[in-house]
Amino acid sequence: MDFNKKIYLLLGGGVFFLSLSGILIKIAVAPPLITAFYRMLFTVIILTPYFLTKHRHEFRYFLDYRPLLVGFLLAVHFILWISSIQYTAVSNSVIFVALQPLFTIILEYLFAREDLKEGAVIGIAMALIGSLIISIADFYQLQGRLFGNFLALTAALFASSYLFIGRGVRKKVAYFPYLYILYTYATIFLGIAVFTAKIPFTGYGSKNYLIFLGLAIGPTVIGHSILNYSVRYLSTSIVSLSILGEPILTTLMAWFFLKEKIILTTVIGGCFILGGIYLASVYNYQQQKKKAA
After folding, report:
1. Cα separations (Å) of 23 from 10, 12, 291?
2. What is the spatial distance between Cα 70 and Cα 83, in angstroms, rounded to a whole number?
3. How many of the other CB atoms lie within 10 Å of CB of 196?
4. Which of 225, 174, 220 is nearest to 10 (CA)?
5. Which of 6, 95, 206, 217 registers the highest number of CB atoms within 10 A of its CB?
6. In this structure, are residues 233 and 43 in contact, taking their beta carbons and an 8 Å threshold?
7. Is the pTM of this model over 0.70?
8. Domain ranges of the chain
9. Mean pLDDT for each 10-residue chunk of the chain (293 residues)?
């Protein structure tokens, strides 16, 4: 097997590990704050030896206010997204949180004076139609799902916000130390939230702690590491668009392992959303290439 095929297979493996996130969160029997906190805490513990060995000189960036702000936004993103899975179907949650690239395009238009051309507008419109299809169906079938859909949608907004605000720091700091600093601050903020909410830090049973560890190792450490590695050999657009496979895989796994029904309106709305994200992302990438040329 040649190297190019191996990279694509590796990228597919990364998307698979990312897709496990929603399933593991769904089967955890713990408050969303606890699940988010331990996912980040175990991630930081796993990454600390490498950071101390290879990137000790990057400690100074802990004093930069921007990673602190981005860590706060990441913490809120995890709280909202993990909470959404408690209220709505896993498929709905991952589809709505996948809207993050579209929010990023909108933020770039509003705050970075990036052009919002026809291709991006059509993609955003398609995603909006898909969101309405899913939400209207949930209103008539199970109104409680609307709140979960809203949480996932808001989680996507916070995800795009932390990526947008963190762009300036990422230009100065290598990817790994940046993520480590970001995860560390997110862990601190999540710990403060758990303490403030007076939720016990312990007493959740070995099964839950194994799930928390699985979230740290699988989707966070392995999944994101593979995506970061793949960017070295594949175009950013290919890696970014491959992530659209995550909601599809998660939906199929939720159907197979959790016996969640795949509702027709979720399929139709999901196709609109993912198609809109694909169209807008490809168009946005092409515009960036033209500017760089």
Report:
1. 21, 18, 40
2. 20
3. 9
4. 225
5. 95
6. no
7. yes
8. 3-292
9. 76 93 95 97 97 89 87 95 92 90 82 69 85 72 74 93 81 84 95 97 96 96 85 70 87 92 88 87 67 60
